[in-house]
Write a structure and sequence with these properties.
alpha+beta; FAD/NAD(P)-binding domain; globular; 32% strand; 19% helix
């Protein structure tokens, strides 16, 4: 194997993302007291999250507790309050909203799941778009379709013809499109906040306890010495805090990598076959996915960094070690796809966590210890539309309006 040249990676042109979260005294989350600092070396995505919830006291009790402030948790919280405004809803996010997969995705919007269609799944894209409309969320959603590309059986008139371990061409077109992930996180958070849900950043739930109080099974969320009682809960932490959902032996966390190019000219975009605005992903290996941006840059993603424990995700620095090697390879790969890209510059380099379960199916079930807790996640990198769609479904299930699917 030839040695990978680091080129610009000798001194990475990004600053490590430093996220400062706070957990104050006397049950206050999000204040400047007793500051907790979260630092990750995942790089910087092209998305901007422009909503921050106001600091507030942690509640003693809520009707519905949502653990995780990404697409899934925020969508569920907003929908719970929409359907049951008389019920209290608390969202507890260990860092900042969108700090995990949701703020570090590529923003590709696809139907179905990574395992394909599933029994009873329904119309993901229609449900996703309908949910955004009902919650009043604008996230630059475009659904022109998506290209499936591969190295065998490509269309003779394929708009894409790239060199990548063979000749990459379009093999099929499926439903899909793109969205601005930062605007989606911000919009969902605003909708939840506006509806009356309380969002608590820097509120890391350490454990769930099921206590018997006066003959009733009581759900307790533990955060250090603080206890929050809840009628029911949704665990939507995806690739992190796996023990809360009982997933530590049921799913595998990884960090996926991506780059964004500098703005390209209309002629370059056309030559690359991306002027339709359709995102793309390979149906064979080596895997490659991507999409255009509003800036006319292009995102390309590939490569997975393995970890033995989800806690190791936070320790990954994409400027060093295996992650840096994979990032350098991705740059070289992009520049080799087409002459239009051979001298292209890059503006963003980043990684985002994903969770992969058995057969690549999402996990959507009751907690193994208590039916009043729902666990939802493991979208295997295909969760932008699916997470919002299933977050709404989870809210309806928590209200007793819908059954959970059987995707075992």
């Amino acid at each position: 194997m030839p040695q990978v040249q680091a080129s610009k990676h000798d001194a990475f042109p990004w600053d490590q993302r430093t996220q400062q979260q706070t957990q104050g005294v006397d049950g206050m989350a999000g204040t400047s007291k007793s500051a907790r600092v979260f630092t990750k070396g995942w790089g910087e995505s092209p998305w901007s999250i422009d909503f921050r919830p106001l600091p507030r006291l942690l509640p003693e009790q809520v009707d519905f507790a949502v653990v995780g402030g990404g697409f899934t948790g925020l969508a569920a919280a907003a929908w719970l309050r929409k359907l049951a405004p008389e019920k209290s809803v608390g969202v507890f996010e260990a860092e900042q909203i969108g700090a995990g997969a949701s703020g570090n995705t590529g923003g590709m919007v696809l139907g179905e799941s990574s395992a394909g269609d599933l029994p009873g799944l329904g119309d993901v894209l229609g449900g996703f778009r309908g949910t955004l409309d009902e919650l009043g969320i604008e996230c630059d959603l475009q659904l022109p379709g998506a290209w499936e590309i591969g190295r065998k059986g490509g269309w003779k008139d394929s708009p894409i013809s790239w060199s990548d371990s063979g000749r990459l061409r379009v093999v099929d077109e499926v439903a899909g499109g793109t969205a601005d992930a930062g605007k989606l996180v911000s919009g969902l958070a605003r909708a939840a906040d506006r509806s009356g849900a309380s969002i608590h950043e820097g509120a890391a739930i350490d454990d769930l306890q099921f206590d018997e109080v006066r003959g009733q099974n009581t759900l307790v969320l533990k955060m250090g010495s603080k206890e929050i009682r809840a009628g029911s809960a949704l665990i939507a932490t995806n690739a992190q805090s796996l023990e809360l959902g009982g997933l530590e032996k049921r799913a595998t966390p990884k960090l996926t990598l991506a780059v964004a190019t500098e703005p390209l000219t209309p002629a370059q975009i056309e030559v690359l076959g991306l002027d339709s605005g359709k995102p793309f992903y390979t149906v064979d290996f080596p895997y490659l996915w991507g999409r255009t941006l509003a800036t006319q840059g292009v995102i390309f993603g590939s490569g997975l960094v393995d970890v033995d424990d989800w806690r190791e995700l936070k320790q990954i620095d994409i400027g060093s070690g295996r992650a840096a090697e994979l990032m350098a390879r991705l740059e070289l790969r992009v520049r080799s796809l087409d002459p239009a890209l051979e001298s292209v510059g890059f503006t963003h380099w980043w990684g985002g966590p994903i969770l992969i379960a058995r057969d690549w199916k999402p996990i959507f079930r009751h907690h193994v210890r208590n039916d009043r807790v729902i666990v939802l996640g493991a979208y295997a990198g295909q969760g932008v539309a699916l997470s919002v769609y299933l977050g709404r479904w989870a809210a309806e299930a928590m209200l007793g309006l819908r059954q959970l699917p059987d995707w075992k």
